[in-house]
């Protein structure tokens, strides 16, 4: 019966977003645009904190964590010199990396003066781009693939006269307004899908910048914004009835002034900070066992964090080729044996989700909740 339910659900939500002449389906082409709407009725009244939800996460690693040590600076500089004559070339049919980071922009305020000095060396920004980008897909493409949680870091751009806010991760990305508009367009076309936007790092932002950002959030999403309330009361059914589609988590005291901003403590996301898959999995298991049974969502960051020596050794290869390709299969194997629920997984994040069918793997964990329900009825 479980296999039959999976097959039926795939017929409903596993449509092709982009036809492939070869007839095969890549992770980008398998469309989970309506997976929440496609869940069976008995999961509509399960708290969202008990469902398995795929997310996109940025590693919390920042260059400044290690660059203040002179020996690390020298190691990286030698690596740059060693590869300076090699041609760096982004892979893919289009340079979607530029969606997330702009190598022509200044180094972000999330970096130290040491990194800003290093960035004056030719080629450094291209290399920073390779190690800053954790995703090939645009917001729209991720949403169509099934991603529903986004780890967001934002900043003003020093020297700009206006109050514009940008996504940032070492280098500046697109404007926040443009990203939010892209999400809203998707939500309007898919009225039963719910997203979690976790604004957890703010750089070079004073009160006026925060007011501007919050106003943008309000203007873009309007009545789709879900007011902060009891986590256990939030189910698909209650959200659909009120036409709420967006939960905003704001890791800054300003959340107290707006009913539609949720406090950051309601969505803890423990960070392993390791390059070891074994240590990462042990950390994920430990933090899951310590998860509070009520009162918050829970993010399992299934993400490895490069250290400066990792970067120096794999300078030109970049994050994807040095860490992700090699370790993503083991991480996905861990995901496959998880179970959602009050003490199980909730939101699971990864990066470069297009390399494997990550979102579908997480979504299908909800079939275990279906199986439990049918056993209970028997």
UniProtKB/TrEMBL annotation:
Example GO molecular function: phosphoric diester hydrolase activity
SMART domains: PLCXc
Domain Phosphatidylinositol-specific phospholipase C X: 86-251
Recorded superkingdom: Eukaryota
GO biological process: lipid metabolic process
Protein name, per record: PI-PLC X domain-containing protein 2
């Amino acid at each position: 019966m479980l296999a039959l339910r999976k097959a039926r659900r795939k017929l409903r939500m596993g449509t092709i977003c982009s036809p492939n002449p070869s007839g095969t389906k890549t992770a980008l082409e398998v469309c989970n645009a309506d997976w929440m709407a496609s869940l069976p009725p008995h999961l509509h009244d399960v708290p969202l904190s008990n469902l398995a939800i795929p997310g996109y996460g940025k590693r919390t690693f920042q260059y400044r964590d290690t660059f203040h040590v002179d020996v690390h600076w020298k190691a990286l500089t030698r690596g740059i010199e060693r590869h300076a004559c090699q041609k760096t070339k982004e892979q893919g049919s289009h340079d979607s990396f530029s969606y997330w980071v702009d190598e022509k922009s200044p180094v972000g305020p999330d970096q130290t003066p040491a990194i800003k000095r290093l960035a004056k060396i030719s080629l450094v920004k291209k290399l920073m781009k390779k190690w800053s980008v954790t995703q090939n897909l645009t917001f729209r493409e991720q949403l169509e693939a099934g991603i529903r949680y986004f780890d967001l870091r934002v900043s003003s751009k020093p020297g700009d006269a206006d109050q514009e806010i940008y996504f940032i991760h070492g280098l500046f990305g697109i404007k926040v307004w443009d990203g939010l508009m892209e999400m809203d367009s998707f939500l309007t076309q898919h009225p039963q899908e719910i997203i979690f936007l976790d604004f957890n790092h703010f750089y070079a932002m004073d009160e006026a910048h925060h007011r501007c950002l919050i106003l943008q959030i309000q203007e873009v999403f309007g009545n789709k914004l879900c007011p902060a309330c009891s986590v256990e009361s939030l189910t698909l059914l209650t959200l659909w009835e009120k036409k709420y589609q967006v939960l905003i988590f704001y890791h800054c005291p300003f959340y107290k002034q707006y009913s539609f901003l949720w406090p950051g403590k309601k969505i803890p996301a423990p960070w392993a900070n390791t390059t070891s898959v074994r240590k990462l999995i042990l950390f994920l298991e430990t933090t899951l066992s310590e998860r509070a049974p009520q009162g918050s969502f829970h993010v399992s960051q299934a993400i490895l964090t490069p250290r400066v020596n990792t970067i120096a050794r794999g300078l030109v290869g970049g994050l994807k080729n040095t860490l992700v390709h090699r370790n993503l299969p083991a991480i996905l194997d861990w995901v496959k044996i998880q179970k959602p629920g009050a003490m199980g997984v909730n939101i699971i994040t990864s990066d470069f989700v297009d390399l494997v069918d990550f979102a579908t793997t997480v979504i299908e964990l909800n079939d275990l909740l279906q199986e439990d329900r049918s056993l209970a009825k028997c």
